[in-house]
């Protein structure tokens, strides 16, 4: 039986589940401890339910929930404004993460928590290692940062909208191929991660440039650009190199475990369900 590895972007899933549970209390200026505990309790229940559905629908042979490090990753050292202004995780949710991990373990879904890396880099590393062995990977996330990984053996699934984020989705949303996305965001910026891009170049212009010249290297080497655009690109070349590094997921992080360590015992998992 061919392997199918499901990698769950845990905080992407949990924070969205939490937001739904918290929404009825938005009218309150402050939350009582009792209310916080109730929201967290509901978040744990609904997160477990979501993972049960993922297991039932995806039918993986291996599964892993990957959590971000609680310490700032390497990107913040390179670029202090990385994700600047993003809403901080509520303390009561942060304190509950080990409880969520324990609840997932009852489904025989293990968790990987890094000391210093973002979950995205860990997921990318594992996905590439698996894909190079011609085995299939499904990444459960709504994070567009995984889309450059799309290939024959790697797919991205949006649990909340129950759809694959595939090449057609990329083309419809960004008007480029998945292999051109890093170059697109380098030019146009990535608001989610507070990466500004080149001033005056939006997504439409960036996509048009990549459609014509295929890559950022091709754009920079073009001799028929308007002088104002060529000058702007030249002036921002050092920043673009930084943006590319920030946007590119690491694929070589030492993981310290084998696939057999995350093999899903379906019989035990189904009993837990």
From TrEMBL:
Enzyme class: hydrolase
NCBIfam families: PRK09482.1
Enzyme nomenclature, EC number: 3.1.-.-
Stored Pfam families: 5_3_exonuc, 5_3_exonuc_N
Job of this protein: Has flap endonuclease activity. During DNA replication, flap endonucleases cleave the 5'-overhanging flap structure that is generated by displacement synthesis when DNA polymerase encounters the 5'-end of a downstream Okazaki fragment.
Residues of the 5'-3' exonuclease domain: 3-265
The organism of origin for this protein: Thalassotalea litorea
Cofactor note: Binds 1 K(+) per subunit. The potassium ion strongly increases the affinity for DNA. Binds 2 Mg(2+) per subunit. Only one magnesium ion has a direct interaction with the protein, the other interactions are indirect.
Binding site for K(+): 187, 196, 198, 201
GO biological process, alphabetically ordered: DNA replication, Okazaki fragment processing
Tagged with keyword Endoplasmic reticulum: no
GO MF, one annotated term: potassium ion binding
Binding site for Mg(2+): 120
Gene name in the database record: xni
The protein's name: Flap endonuclease Xni
Keywords from the named record: DNA-binding, Endonuclease, Hydrolase, Magnesium, Metal-binding, Nuclease, Potassium
SUPFAM superfamilies linked: 5' to 3' exonuclease, C-terminal subdomain (SSF47807), PIN domain-like (SSF88723)
Coiled-coil stretches noted in the UniProt entry, renumbered to this chain: none
Region feature (Interaction with DNA): 200-205
Superkingdom of origin organism: Bacteria
Family stated for the protein in its record: Belongs to the Xni family.
Gene3D superfamilies hit by this protein: 5' to 3' exonuclease, C-terminal subdomain (1.10.150.20), 5'-nuclease (3.40.50.1010)
InterPro entries assigned to the protein according to its UniProt record, in alphabetical order: 5-3_exonucl_a-hlix_arch_N, 5-3_exonuclease, 5-3_exonuclease_C_sf, DNA_polI_H3TH, FEN, HhH2, PIN-like_dom_sf, Xni
Essential cofactor(s): K(+); Mg(2+)
């Amino acid at each position: 039986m061919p392997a199918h590895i499901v990698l769950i972007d845990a905080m992407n899933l949990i924070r969205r589940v939490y937001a739904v549970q918290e929404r009825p209390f938005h009218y309150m200026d402050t939350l009582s401890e009792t209310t916080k505990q109730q929201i967290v309790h509901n978040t744990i229940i609904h997160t477990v339910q979501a993972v049960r559905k993922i297991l039932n629908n995806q039918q993986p042979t291996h599964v892993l929930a990957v959590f971000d490090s609680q310490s700032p990753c390497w990107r913040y050292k390179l670029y202090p404004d990385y994700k600047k202004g993003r809403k901080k995780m509520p303390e009561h949710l942060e304190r509950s993460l080990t409880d969520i991990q324990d609840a997932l373990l009852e489904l025989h879904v293990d968790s990987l928590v890094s000391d210093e890396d973002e979950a995205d880099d860990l997921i990318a590393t594992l996905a590439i290692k698996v894909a190079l062995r011609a085995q299939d990977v499904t990444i459960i996330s709504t994070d567009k940062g995984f889309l450059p990984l799309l290939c024959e053996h790697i797919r991205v699934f949006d649990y909340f909208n129950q759809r694959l984020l595939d090449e057609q989705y990329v083309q419809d949303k960004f008007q480029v191929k998945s292999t051109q996305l890093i170059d697109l965001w380098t030019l146009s910026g990535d608001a989610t991660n507070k990466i500004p891009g080149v001033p005056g170049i939006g997504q439409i212009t960036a996509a048009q440039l990549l459609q014509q010249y295929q890559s950022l290297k091709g754009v920079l080497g073009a001799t028929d650009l308007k002088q104002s655009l060529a000058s702007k690109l030249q002036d921002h070349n050092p920043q673009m190199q930084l943006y590319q590094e920030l946007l590119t997921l690491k694929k070589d992080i030492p993981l310290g475990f084998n696939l057999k360590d995350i093999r899903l015992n379906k019989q035990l998992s189904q009993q837990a369900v």
